[in-house]
Specification:
mainly alpha, single chain, 85% helix, 5 helices
Length: 136
């Protein structure tokens, strides 16, 4: 991985982490606790969360950031990032809806929408960073 790609990954990672932590820790915390009830672990398993936050931006780089920058389009990077989030979060939530008893339907739609939004924003930030390195 080149320096420019590592920088784009780092910005994508940081934006994703900060926005997602604000969402999960403050804005939607009560909603998730109420909707999931006993399904929600009292303490998150931080090692698994860390693995997600380290790997997910790699997917955003491969499927959104780099293609967007190659097309010289921040809009393309943002849309592809949003679609990546829609498919990834959709896979998670719809699978849970299919196999976990009492998985909340409303939470499924909110979470998929959130995944699309946060992924699009993080991909856009990564694309701006990568484009800056490419244009130097």
């Amino acid at each position: 991985m080149s320096t420019k790609h590592l920088a784009a990954w780092a910005v994508t990672f940081a934006v994703l982490l900060v926005i997602d932590m604000a969402w999960l820790g403050f804005f939607a915390k009560g909603m998730y606790q109420q909707a999931m009830g006993e399904l929600m672990s009292p303490q998150p398993r931080l090692a698994f969360a860390a693995l997600f936050y380290l790997l997910y931006p790699v997917g955003l780089l491969i499927f959104a950031v780099v293609p967007g920058v190659e097309a010289q389009s921040l809009t393309r990077a943002t849309v592809l990032g949003g679609l990546f989030g829609l498919f990834c979060y959709g896979t998670y939530d719809l699978t849970n809806l299919a196999v976990i008893r009492n998985w909340p339907l409303g939470l499924t739609f909110i979470d998929i929408g959130w995944g699309a939004l946060v992924s699009g924003v993080a991909a856009a930030a990564g694309a701006v960073t990568l484009r800056w390195f490419v244009s130097r």
